[in-house]
Amino acid sequence: MSVLPDPIPRLEAAAQALQTPCGDGHIQWHRWGPTDAGPSAPVVLLHGGSGSWTHWVRNIDALVAAGRQVLVPDLPGFGDSARPPGGGDADDVAPALEQGLAELLGARRCDLVGFSFGGLTAGLLAAAHPERAARLVVVGAPAMGVSDAGRIVLRGWRHLEDEAARTAVHRHNLAVLMLHRAESIDALALALHSANVVRDRMQRRRLARTEALKDALQQVRCPVWAIYGREDVLYTGRMDLLAEAFARGPRFQGLTLIDDAGHWVQYERAAAFDAALAQVLRA
Question: What is the spatial distance between Cα 9 and Cα 107, in angstroms, rounded to a whole number?
Answer without folding.
Answer: 32
